[in-house]
């Protein structure tokens, strides 16, 4: 397979189906189930997911925590407004960032946030136009960021988020993401307890989601697309739970494309997972042979995105696109704050 067209993953989405706000009750989202072998579809409420899980299954969740990484400030010399998005932490309070407007953020430019609570200087311009910035402040960086930062919502969400916690999963633990692993937003603590009581084991892995997750595929032949790099970590406890489920012939079900990419990146040739940490640039598209996951819980993704390509690799492009057509007919809500899909 030497050519897969980006346009093969296109679909028309009415704008009004892009979810702008989270639902009051996380688990009341709709859930579309798709059988990957037959393409059979059924419609449910997310909390009914317990009906599709079996004792012995292992559910794998990404416990990354989103940083309030969007900072609004001014240039020290002119007072012009500037927006800084934290992408990746380097050493000594240096961050790789995205600055808007970028043209005026040359090396040496000084920025001020929150009346001087946080100050910064642009050190250098990196590839793709990102800026390396050095921050200075009193106290603890995370506390300053919590006071001044906003959640870095995707560009298609235009409403202001009233409650920061709604762009976090209820099990978010390790800070480092520029975007939420949104498939996990549907779970409540009560629902997770109920799932464990059924005899399903829950394993937590960590993948810090980068903004590259929203980067559009620009090449016509998707095989020429270069994936962004993301850091992941798998604990000994999580590896043991996942390996046990596999060894006993049970299913491993990833919650979200990030958990899926973590597992498929870490699986060894013998089919097992070990405690590890690494960076991954794995790009999963049709033709990919899954080594670890048997099922996937995910949201509805953008047309021509790497995420719809991953889902199509698991369930088949035709099955996925017809499920998306059905979801549009049934007025499902799409993208980050939208409804969910379970592929089995």
Please, could you describe this protein's structure?
18% of the residues lie in helices and 27% in strands. It has 2 domains: 6-66 and 163-343, 3-Layer(aba) Sandwich (QueA-like); 70-148, QueA-like (Thrombin, subunit H, Beta Barrel). The strands form 3 sheets. Strands 2-1-17-16-14-3-12-13-15 form a 9-stranded mixed β-sheet. Strands 5-6-7-10-9-8 form a 6-stranded antiparallel beta barrel. The radius of gyration is 21 Å and the shape is globular. With 344 residues, it is α/β, with parallel strands linked by helices. The mean pLDDT is 95. Helix 5 crosses helix 6 (317-329). 40% of the residues are buried. The longest helix has 13 residues, at 317-329. It starts with 29 loop residues before the first strand and ends with a strand. Strand 9 and strand 10 (131-137) form a beta hairpin.
Q: What's the helix-strand series?
A: EEEEEEEEEEHEHEEHEHEEHHE
Strand-residue fraction?
25-35%
Helix vs. strand class = alpha/beta
CATH architecture of the largest domain: 3-Layer(aba) Sandwich
Number of domains: 2
Alpha carbon gyration radius: 21 Å
Largest sheet: 9 strands, mixed
Regions with little confidence, pLDDT below 50 for 5+ residues: none
Classify the fold: give the CATH topology of the largest domain: QueA-like
Distance separating the two termini: 26 Å
Mean pLDDT, to the nearest integer, reads: 95
What is the number of strand segments?
17
CATH homology-level superfamily of the largest domain: QueA-like
The helical percent reads 10-25%
Spatial order of the strands forming the largest sheet? 2-1-17-16-14-3-12-13-15
Number of helices: 6
């Amino acid at each position: 397979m030497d050519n897969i067209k980006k346009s093969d993953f296109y679909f028309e989405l009415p704008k009004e189906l892009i979810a702008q706000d989270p639902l009051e009750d996380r688990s009341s989202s709709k859930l579309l189930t798709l059988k990957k072998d037959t393409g059979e579809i059924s419609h449910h409420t997310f909390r009914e997911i317990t009906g599709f899980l079996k004792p012995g299954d292992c559910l794998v969740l990404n416990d990354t925590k989103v940083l309030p990484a969007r900072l609004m400030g001014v240039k020290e010399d002119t007072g012009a407004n500037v927006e800084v998005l934290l992408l990746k932490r380097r050493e000594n309070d240096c961050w790789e960032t995205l600055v808007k407007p970028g043209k005026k953020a040359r090396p040496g430019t000084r920025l001020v946030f929150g009346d001087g609570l946080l100050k910064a200087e642009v050190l250098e311009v990196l590839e793709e136009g990102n800026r390396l910035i050095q921050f200075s402040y009193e106290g603890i960086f995370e506390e300053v960021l919590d006071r001044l930062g906003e959640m870095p919502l995707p560009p298609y969400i235009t409403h202001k988020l009233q409650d920061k916690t709604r762009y976090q999963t209820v099990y978010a633990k390790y800070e480092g993401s520029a975007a939420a692993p949104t498939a996990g937003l549907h779970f409540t603590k009560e629902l997770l307890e109920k799932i464990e009581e059924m005899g399903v084991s829950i394993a937590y892995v960590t993948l810090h989601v980068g903004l590259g997750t929203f980067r559009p595929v620009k090449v016509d032949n998707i095989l020429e697309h270069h994936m962004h790099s993301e850091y992941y970590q798998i604990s000994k406890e999580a590896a043991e739970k996942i390996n046990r489920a596999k060894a006993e012939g049970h299913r491993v079900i990833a919650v979200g494309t990030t958990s899926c990419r973590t597992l498929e990146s870490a699986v060894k040739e013998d089919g097992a997972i070990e405690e590890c940490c690494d960076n991954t640039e794995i790009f999963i598209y049709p033709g990919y042979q899954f080594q670890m996951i048997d099922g996937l819980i995910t949201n509805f993704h953008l047309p021509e995105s790497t995420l719809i390509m991953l889902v199509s690799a698991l369930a088949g492009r035709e099955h996925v696109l017809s499920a998306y057509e059905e979801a549009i007919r049934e007025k499902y809500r799409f993208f980050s704050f939208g409804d969910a899909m379970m592929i089995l």
